[in-house]
Amino acid sequence: MTTAEKEKSEPLIDLQRLVVSVRRRRRLWLATALAGLIAGGLVAMFLPSPPTAVAKILVVHADDSPSDSGTLMETDVAVMETTKIAGDALKKLNSTQPPEEFLKDYTALGVTNNVLQVTVKGKDDADAIARAQALSDAFITEYVARNQAGAAAEQKALLDQRNQAQTELGTIQNDIVAEEAKRNPNPAQLERLYSRRAELTSKISDYDGRAQEAGIGTPKVGAGTQIVDAPRILPKSLLKSTGTAAGIGLVLGLLAGLVLAAIGSVVKDRPVLRRELSRHLGASVIAQLPKPPRWFRKRRALEERKRVAKTLIRTIREDDGTVSLLDLGARTTTAALAVDIANELAEQAPVTLVDELPRAGLRALAAGSKVRVLDRDEPRVPGERRIGAGSIEPGTAWTDLEHLGAEAILVVRAGQANTEWLHTVARQLAERRIPIIGVVLVDPDPRDHTDGTLWDGLHTALRGRAAEPARGPQPKPVEMFPDDEPTVRRLAVAPPEPAPKHRQPTPYKRADEHDADQPTTRFAPVTQDNAEAL
Questions:
Q1: Which residue, among 517, 519, 515, has the nearest Cα to 505 in the 3D structure?
Q2: What is the rounded average pLDDT for all residues in the chain?
Q3: Number of CB atoms found within 10 A of residue 150's CB
C-alpha cells in the first residue's frame, strides 16, 4: 500500500482512539467537573441572588372568549415588558434608573388566559415589594386607560356618523318641502324622498344609542382588572439554591473538561491503541503491563510483572547476544522488569546489568542479588550475559544505544509520546542496526482489544527480529558502506526460498496478502543488484 493510499484509507479522526484518549484523561474532566461543582456552590453562598418579589394581576379582556388560545395574555406580557410600563413604574418610585436597565430586573409570565404574574428583583425586600407594586399599578393604569381610550374613540366615531346622517337628513327634508310646494308634485320622487328620510331617521337613532353605550366604556374591565395577589417576597432556601448552582457548575465543568480532553487528544496526537503503537514503531506488542499501583494491588502488579519477565526471557534465552530494555515513559517499570529478567537469567549464568536509565534506582533494586550493576564503559567479562537498561525519551544520545545491546525491547507507556517521536525512535534504531524484538506496552486501555501484531514483521529488515539462519552455505555478504571507511559493516541476507506452487493461506491472513516467506516490495532483502541503491 502506498503512502497516498494509506492516507486516503485512514479516517481524519479515529473515533475509537478519541474515546480511549478522552477516557484516559479522566483526571482532567473529573477535575474540571469538581472545580465547577465547588465554584457553583461558592457563588451561591457568597454571591446570593437578590431578593425577589412576586405579584399576580387579574386581567379582564373585553374581547375575551372561551376559544381564545392565549394570544390576548401574550399581548399583555409583551406590553408589560416595554419601556413605557417600566418608565411609569420608575416615576411612581421616583427613581432615576433608566427604563432599559429596569427591564432586566423583572419578568412577566402568563399563568392562565386572565392571570399575569410579575417577578421583580430589588436591592432588599422593601425595594423588591415596592417595585412589584409600582409595576402592577402602572400596568393596570395603562391597561384601563387603553380600554377607555378605545371606548372614547368608538363613541366619537359613532357621533361623527350621526352628525353626517343628520346633515343629510336636513337636505332630504328641504327637498321634500320644495317638491310638495310645486303645483304638480312628482309622486315617485316624493316616495323616494320619504323613504330616504325614514332610513336616515332610523340610522340617527341607532347612532345615538350606540354612542351612549360606547360612552359608558368597559366598566367590567376597569373594575375587574386588579391585583389579586399582593406583592410578596419569595422564600429562599440556601440548601436548594446552593445545590442548584453547584449542579449547574458540575455540568458546565464536566462539559468543559470533556471538550478540552477531546481537543487535547486530537492536537497532541499521542497513540494509545496497540495497533497504532505497533504500526508506528514497526514492531509487535508482545506483552503488556498495567499502570504501577500506588497504594493497592501491589502484589497483583508484581505477579503480572514476573509473568511478563518470564515471557521475555523465553524470547531472548536462546540468543547469546546482549539485549537492552529501552524506556519510553515507564522508567520504574522498565527498571523493575530489567532486574526481574536479570535475576531469572542469573540462575543459569552470570548476568550484568548496564545502568543507563537515569533516576530509576536500578542499583537499589538489584541490591542483594547475584546481578552486578555496571556502567556502560566497563569491560565485559567473558561468558557473562549483559542486559542493558536505557531510555529513548526526548534528549536520548542515540549513539550510546549500540553499547547497551545488539537487540532491544521497548517498554512504552501508552499515550506518552506522539506519533512523530515514535517514528523518530523507529528510524534511529534502524539506523543504529538495532532490531526491535517487541514492545511491552505499559498502562494500556482495559477496553483496547486491537491487534498489536505486525504480520510482515520478519520483512521489516532492521526493525524486526532476524529470522532463523538459513541452512547450508551462506551467500557472500554485500558491502553496505564504501571500503575506504574505517568501520565497515556487512549485512548477509539469504536469498528468499521459492514459495510452494499450491500454498494455502494461513488462518491469520487472507489469500490475497503476501506470503510470510515472500519478501514484500517495500522491505525487499539486500542483494547484489540493489546494494548500490542502498
A1: 515
A2: 79
A3: 15
The pLDDT, as a whole number, for residue 325 is: 92
CA distances from 252 to 72, 381, 396 (A): 38, 64, 42
Q: Which of 15-29, 191-205, 323-337 bottoms out in mean pLDDT, i.e. has the lowest?
A: 15-29
Amino acid at 193: L
Query: Distance (Å, rounded) from C-alpha 411 to C-alpha 7?
Result: 28
Nearest-angstrom CA–CA distance, 283 and 287: 12
> What residues contact residue 309 under an 8 Å CB cut-off, 6+ apart?
337, 340, 341, 344
CB distance 79 to 142 below 8 Å: yes
Q: Is residue 328 classed as helix, strand or coil in its secondary structure?
A: strand
Residues 6 or more apart from 239 whose CB is under 8 A from it? none
Measure Cα distances from 219 to 79, 208, 213 in Å. 21, 20, 11
Q: Quick one: DSSP state of residue 474?
A: P
The closest alpha carbon to 189, from 178, 204, 198, belongs to 178
Among 322, 292, 452, smallest CA distance to 390 is for 322
pLDDT band at 525 (very low <50, low <70, confident <90, very high): very low
d(CA 36, CA 248): 8
Strand partners, 288: 441
DSSP state of 134: H
Distance CA 497, CA 191 (A): 131
10 Å CB burial of residue 149 (0-12, 13-18, 19+) is exposed
Q: Which three cell numbers stand for residue 332?
A: 520504574
Could you report the per-residue pLDDT of 254-295, keeping only the tens digit for each?
Answer: 999 999 988 887 888 888 888 888 888 988 898 888 887 766
